[in-house]
Amino acid sequence: MTAGERLTCTWAVVGRRTGRLTIVGDLDHDQADEINRVLAEGLAAHHGLRAVHLDCAEVAFCDSYGLAALLMAHRHIRAVGARLHLDNLQPGLSRLLELTHTLEFLTAEAAPSRAEKFDT
Amino acid sequence: MTEPEHAPRGSVLEIDTRIDTAPYAAVVADAAGIVQALNRAARTLLPAVRVGETLTATAPAWLAASHANLAHAAGPGPVDQGWVERRSLEGHPVRHDDGTVTWWLVDDTDARLAREALRSEQARTAFLTEVSTALLGSLNLQRCMEITVGLATEHLGDAAMVIAPAAHGGRYPTVSGVRGGEVAHDVLDVDVEEVPGLPEALQGFPPVPSRWLDPMSLPDWLRPTGFGEVGSIVVTPLPGHGVPAGALILVRGAGAAEFSEDEEVVARLFATRAGVAMSAARLYDQQASITETLMRDLLPPTVHRLSGVEFAARYRPSQDGERIGGDFYDVHPASRDDEESLVVLGDVCGKGLDAAVLTGKIRSTLHALLPLAGDHLRMLKLLNGALLNTHDARFATLVLASVARAGGGVRLRLTCGGHPAPLVVRADGRVEEAPTRGTLIGAMPEVRATTAELTLGPGETCLMYTDGITEAKGGPFGDELFGERRLHRALGECAGMPAEAVVERVQMLASQWLGRGAHDDMAVLAITAPRGQHLTAVGGHGRGRYTA
User: Fold this and answer.
1) Which among B388, B448, B467 has the least Cβ separation from residue A63?
2) B360, B394, B398: which is closest to B376 by C-alpha?
3) Per-residue pLDDT tens over the stretch B292-330
4) How many angstroms separate the CA atoms of B453 and B405, rounded?
5) Are B441 and B313 found together in one domain?
6) Which residues does chain A have within 8 Å of residue B352's beta carbon, measured at their own beta carbons?
7) Domain extent at residue B96
8) Is B208 helix (H, G, I), strand (E, B) or coil?
């Protein structure tokens, strides 16, 4: 595929229990894994997070591989007991998440029993 | 340093105590090579040399020869080097006015050994670099074996054979060669037990050291053809990536020196590199053949007219070898004309073999679930359950379409699982999105989906496609997506066309949009109600202008 907008992910802890991953670029099959690499480092370095916000204001494109990366990010975040928030969704990504019924799933309040069943 | 100048010519010289106690050996000889004096260090170093004797008779030959040469040479005389016992000495001649020469002998053994070690280390590094470069250039096993034999005969032995682990019913593929000759491929049906150490080397475990063999006990098949008497032979295992890559057999002729310790080390390092390259090539071979097998099974079926409904499909795989097995489609024909056929089109997220395996799993699971095709949601839920796994977030999106002839038209039930909704091209050129939505399959514990039911009038088409079409990146500036709007517009121009023409046109437009750009898999499948001969078949859809 034609290389998309270069993806950069920046991790920051913005509150005592809140992390934020700012995603800039295309979530495509060449680069989407980057979000989980940066996220894993961030989650490992800060224990006890309750919420992780993925700021998607600068995500112009997301393909199915990007979606898989978001689902994986969801697993990582749930695994540490935090909730995923998707901020500033742009129309393209928003539509993809609706089409696949994933928006609700990704951002749902932690339902421990189900989440555990799924994550283990 | 003071020379004993007062002593008469040709007689034994007294030696100054400052010279006598110098840390380096000094030997004074006259033009005829008769030793005139020795200091203490020289007496220790060269006990045979005596005052009054000739250098030729008592000193090391190289020193005597250098001294003799000095008589004919002008100037201070060249520095010479030679060995005494195991010490390396540098001889520095100093001429005197009376025709005598003092040879200062400086021990440079350590420096010389260090220099030699450095030189052989550099040669070894150069050789191993050459080996790596040559071997890494190929992922073809045969070629790797040839290169190994070629390098081995050039640098290590007079003849070499690489024997690979048994294949083809217990026979051993081999490549062998003699220095300067061609390499030969063979498949040998031999008993490796005849060669001590070879079975272990071929097994790769436990690791065995290189093994020296008695040249007399060599079986004939190991004896290189056109090779004289064998002097020494060594079997070295070729360690691979956890799998044995075979064994390297090095042979030297009877006249050649045996392998030195250093050479054995180099041979082992060489074997390691060759083994890694060969096992990488073998793994690649295996993977390529697995991929090919899977691909063969994954090739989309030929789609045509079934039970009075037209089907047509196009599939354009991504050229990126990693992306095999992304898109798929299947048509499961009904057993009777009045029953529904099931059409599936989907897209598996992921790359390479993982994606191919998941695709295969989805297709066979859906095949098994065919009896339940009356309830798409149930089918999707069961499929989802079968695909859910814990170690990654692979998923698939797909569309199920149950298709049956109904009067002059075609009745459709469509259900999306996270996939772009199929598009319906009405007879008047309107393009509608089928009102179906659903959860993608294989990543989340719960699946919800709505099924759309609709009817195609004669000449109307339902198009299922994968996002490879809408996400085709290209256009005038090469960075724009083909997009849904363009797809809608293109389909609007396809009203009334047969299924074949619709898929051809969509595929062509997307390909043109791409230009030379790389792309994802692209799949399109059209279901078309054939244009009926009966006006009644129009069934209220469209204005029926095509019957005019």
Assistant:
1) B467
2) B398
3) 776 666 666 777 777 789 999 988 877 655 545 578 898
4) 13
5) yes
6) none
7) 17-107
8) coil
